């Protein structure tokens, strides 16, 4: 079975075509700058060169059509015909309280995703554009929605409610939802299999540290707490996002800096975080080299980030009554031995320590704790596309004749 995995952002479409017989990627790529000047499709058939296809791409429907044409192209395509695509798996950011698992998309499900757009106005509408485009182009091909929030639907009320009047939760669904769910679930599953255990027997803390960053406490297979909240702005300090701040800062800024609500939103989402602290960059690579040259604010940004991550790890150990494994994933988690070391330095009281030799690993699944550590520490590259493809496969194998 061949699964087309689609991840639509506001001006981009990332995709992979995955052959589920051996879970290999046949082709992948990205449409960039939708609706803008300079829009193009970058398409890479596995093992071959990347082709750049610049074209006017006014909307997601045109982008999807271009991707399909590339996939069936006689020169750089990987399938003969569009009918070779057995199912489509869509990443959907927000599933609200309605979707606790991946689902086959029906008209009713579409309405449910539309309803969630109210709490995710930036993310769900582009996801819907992608779904609608694929349903129009491939009307008989089953489509599945895989939600970023679904894995966190097991959070108990004590973890997901804010200290606000309860009526606001009832009226608007104002609560913590959590994000990066597919990534947290995937790396926890891989960690359990590397330990030759079942996830349901383990307490795992997963640290997804990329541009956007979140940490999850997974107790016996279920997410019981996670650092992102109603939106992905809550929790850790991130590349450009502030993470948690005292909410009283918002009216203060409105008054003192004469800022409007959209301006504050922009400030907290795009101009804060390690970019705001360092005044230099949102990229940890830049900060590491600047700090090595003696730049104090870059060093401060690094220190703040590592401190926050460590505090969350400690908090989640308390929430779960212990921990069996800590996992690092995403851009920073997979590639920065320096940051992993800094975060874990001081966690010896848990019965664990990083092995400096093992910690040199980048972008490969490996245990990095010392031998016989009570708590294992892992680096595990995330693979959200594979989770989407697997869920799509599992849902569709029942309805598709193989
Ligand atoms: P996202 O998907 O949230 O945009 P990624 O998971 O791709 O982010 O992570 C991107 C971040 O990873 C970059 O901003 C950079 O800070 C960090 N990163 C990537 N490689 C390295 C590295 N070798 N050392 C330190 N940080 C790195």
Number of domains: 2
Mean pLDDT: 96
The total count of helices amounts to 14
CATH architecture group name of the largest domain: 2-Layer Sandwich
Radius of gyration: 22 Å
> For this structure, what is the CATH class of the largest domain?
Alpha Beta
Task: Please describe what this structure looks like.
36% of the residues lie in helices and 19% in strands. The protein starts with a strand and ends in a 6-residue tail after the last helix. The chain has two domains: 146 residues, ATPase, nucleotide binding domain (Nucleotidyltransferase, domain 5, 2-Layer Sandwich), CATH 3.30.420.40; 189 residues, 2-Layer Sandwich (Nucleotidyltransferase, domain 5). It is of the alpha/beta class and 402 residues long. The strands form two sheets. The chain has an eight-stranded mixed beta sheet with strand order 5-4-3-2-1-6-8-7, with helices on both faces. The chain has a six-stranded mixed beta sheet with strand order 11-10-9-12-14-13, sandwiched between helices. It has 14 helices and 14 strands. The site of adenosine-5'-diphosphate has 12 residues, from helix 10 and helix 12.
Keywords:
alpha/beta; Nucleotidyltransferase, domain 5
Q: What is this structure's SSE topology?
A:
Layout: E1 2-8, E2 13-19, E3 24-32, E4 40-45, E5 51-54, H1 60-71, E6 87-92, E7 103-104, H2 107-116, H3 124-137, E8 143-147, H4 157-160, H5 166-172, H6 181-194, E9 203-209, E10 213-219, E11 222-226, H7 249-256, H8 261-270, H9 273-278, H10 284-292, H11 296-320, E12 325-329, H12 330-335, H13 337-344, E13 366-367, E14 376-379, H14 384-396
Parallel strand pairs: 1-6, 6-8, 9-12, 12-14
Antiparallel strand pairs: 1-2, 2-3, 3-4, 4-5, 7-8, 9-10, 10-11, 13-14
Helix pairs in contact: 1-3, 10-11, 11-13
The protein binds adenosine-5'-diphosphate.
Adenosine-5'-diphosphate binds next to helix 10 and helix 12.
């Amino acid at each position: 079975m061949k699964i087309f995995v689609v991840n639509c952002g506001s001006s981009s479409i990332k995709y992979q075509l995955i052959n589920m017989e051996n879970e290999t990627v046949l082709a992948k790529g990205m449409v960039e700058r939708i609706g803008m000047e300079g829009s193009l499709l970058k398409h890479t058939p596995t093992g071959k060169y990347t082709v750049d296809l610049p074209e006017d791409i006014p909307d997601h429907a045109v982008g999807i059509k271009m991707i399909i044409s590339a996939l069936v192209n006689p020169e750089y395509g990987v399938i003969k015909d569009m009918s070779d695509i057995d199912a489509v798996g869509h990443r959907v950011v927000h599933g609200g309280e309605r979707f606790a698992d991946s689902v086959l998309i029906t008209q009713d499900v579409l309405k449910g995703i539309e309803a969630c757009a109210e709490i995710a106005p930036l993310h769900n509408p582009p996801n819907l554009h992608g779904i609608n485009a694929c349903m129009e182009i491939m009307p008989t091909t089953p489509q599945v929605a895989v939600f970023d929030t679904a894995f966190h639907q097991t959070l108990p009320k004590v973890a997901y409610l804010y200290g606000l009047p309860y009526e606001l939760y009832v009226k608007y669904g104002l609560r913590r939802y959590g994000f990066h769910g597919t990534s947290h679930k995937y790396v926890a599953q891989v960690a359990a299999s590397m330990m030759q255990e079942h996830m349901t027997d383990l307490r795992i803390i997963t640290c997804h540290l990329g541009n956007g960053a979140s940490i999850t406490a997974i107790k016996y297979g279920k997410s019981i707490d996670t650092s992102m909240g109603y939106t992905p702005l809550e929790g850790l300090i991130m590349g450009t996002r502030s993470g948690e701040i005292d909410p009283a800062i918002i009216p203060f800024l409105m008054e003192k800096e004469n800022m409007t609500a959209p301006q504050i939103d922009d400030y907290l989402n795009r101009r804060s975080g390690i970019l705001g602290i360092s005044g230099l960059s949102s990229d940890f690579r830049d900060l590491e080299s600047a700090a090595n040259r003696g730049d104090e604010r870059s060093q401060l940004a690094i220190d703040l980030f590592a401190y926050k991550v460590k505090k969350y790890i400690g908090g989640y150990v308390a929430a779960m009554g212990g921990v069996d494994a800590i996992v690092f994933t995403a851009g920073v988690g997979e590639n920065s031995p320096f940051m992993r070391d800094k975060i874990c330095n001081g966690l010896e009281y848990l019965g664990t320590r990083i092995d400096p030799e093992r910690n040199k690993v980048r972008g490969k699944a490996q245990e990095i704790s010392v031998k016989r550590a009570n708590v294992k520490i892992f680096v595990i590259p995330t693979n959200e596309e594979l989770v989407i493809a697997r869920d799509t496969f599992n849902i569709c194998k029942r309805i598709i004749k193989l």
